[in-house]
Design brief:
Layout (H helix, E strand, L loop, with lengths): L1 H22 L19 H10 L1 H4 L14 H15 L10 H16 L6 H6 L7 H14 L7 H16 L23 E2 L10 E7 L1 H8 L11 E11 L5 E14 L10 E7 L4 E2 L6 H9 L16
Helix pairs in contact: 5-7
The chain binds heme C (2 copies).
The site of one heme C has 19 residues, from helix 3, helix 4 and helix 5.
Length: about 325
């Protein structure tokens, strides 16, 4: 009896082994196409990107021996293909400059929020993990890209005036409601800020604030799943610079809300999404699928309940 079981186990093991050997002959074709437009970034930026991103986002992929073993190699090949088509630092300079700026802004956000490099990759390639110093290098680089704006006294005064109007609540005094039922909440000006003002995007300044429920959740470290009733708002102004290079918020552009209600907004991943534009607070809901646009960009952080911002310790 014992002998029989042993024999059977041996047979299963040899079958598996044979299968494993056979699939080694099914190897994906991973090639490095020529580099046609290498990113022209400062050396320290390049080092960070090479270390953490180039294996999937360039034509200079370096495979380790374990990347070449099936079935791991199949996953690796898929990541490289999808990665290169999303961002390719070897063809970067072929993109228009404006697009480079936009993409790099997204890159920095993905790097800071820990979405990239992919977790399944850093598990096998721990050296590719980004340190805080690495993140700071990327962030610094992108803030240098943001043009501080030319100094123009008349425009600056006008924008200051517009900022004052926003502060005073001049403009639309009704409460607009977006088509998915998310209402503009004028109280957000009194909410607590949950992130430092990161002025590293293209000429805009933004602040992220949360209502009392959200603030309580942060204090209790209960933000893996933000409790129902949490509301986060992202406010965005034009960024102004004076002659000395100091920056200020100018014209109010928009406010975006994420309202947590896991039942009411089950169809949009537990959050109600809305954007109100300009001082007239026009809901940006012309396109019926507007919420899906918000979600598709926030989906990479779905494990953080779709929230990018790491709230500062309150
Ligand atoms: C193991 C492979 C891998 C590594 C390493 C990696 N990425 Fe990615 N990245 C991907 C894949 C795959 C996608 C496409 C995801 C999709 O389309 O759903 C992607 C998408 C992205 C996107 C989204 C682009 C878009 O237009 O949607 C950005 C930005 C990005 N990666 C930045 C980075 C940065 C920055 C690094 C290094 C810090 C990095 N990635 C490292 C595999 C990787
Ligand atoms: C192009 C990608 C993109 C799209 C589209 C997008 N967001 Fe965001 N959103 C971000 C990023 C990145 C952040 C992180 C904060 C920052 O750096 O601006 C963010 C932050 C936020 C925040 C603050 C909470 C957090 O996640 O950090 C709210 C609220 C928000 N977005 C609402 C919306 C709404 C509502 C829409 C659709 C009308 C939307 N967003 C569309 C990328 C996007």
């Amino acid at each position: 009896m014992k002998f029989l079981i042993k024999k059977r186990m041996l047979r299963v093991i040899s079958f598996l082994l044979l299968g494993f050997i056979i699939i080694q002959f099914i190897q994906p074709h991973i090639e490095n196409p020529p580099v046609t437009g290498d990113i022209a970034a400062p050396l320290e930026v390049k080092i960070v990107l090479k270390k953490a991103c180039f294996d999937c986002h360039s034509n200079e992929t370096q495979l380790r021996w374990f990347d070449r073993i099936s079935p791991v190699s199949w996953i690796v090949a898929k990541d490289i293909e999808a990665g290169r088509s999303a961002v390719n630092f070897s063809e970067w300079n072929n993109l228009p400059v404006a697009q480079q700026k936009d993409k790099f802004w997204q890159i920095v956000n993905f790097a800071i929020s820990g979405v990239m490099p992919l977790k399944q990759y850093t598990r096998m390639h721990p050296a590719a993990k980004l340190s805080e110093g690495d993140q700071a290098i990327l962030k610094n680089y992108v803030s240098g890209m943001a043009s501080p704006g030319t100094y123009d006294t008349s425009k600056t005064m006008e924008a200051f005036e517009q900022f004052n109007q926003w502060q005073k609540g001049v403009g639309n005094t009704s409460i607009p409601v977006a088509s998915n039922g998310v209402a503009y909440d004028p109280d957000y000006k009194n909410w607590q800020s949950i992130s430092t003002t990161d002025a590293f995007s293209n000429g805009t300044m933004r602040v992220i604030v949360g209502n009392a429920v959200a603030i309580k959740a942060i204090k209790e470290n209960n933000i893996r799943h933000w409790p129902d009733g949490s509301v986060l708002a992202k406010i965005q102004w034009d960024q102004l610079a004076d002659k000395e290079g100091n920056i200020y918020p100018g014209k109010f552009n928009q406010v975006e809300f994420m309202v947590k209600d896991s039942r009411k907004y089950a169809a949009t991943e537990g959050w109600g999404w809305a954007r109100f534009k300009t001082i007239d607070l026009v809901p940006d809901d012309k396109d019926a699928r507007f919420a899906s646009k918000c979600i598709s960009c926030h989906r990479p952080v779905k494990d953080l309940d779709h929230v990018f911002t790491f709230p500062v310790k309150l």
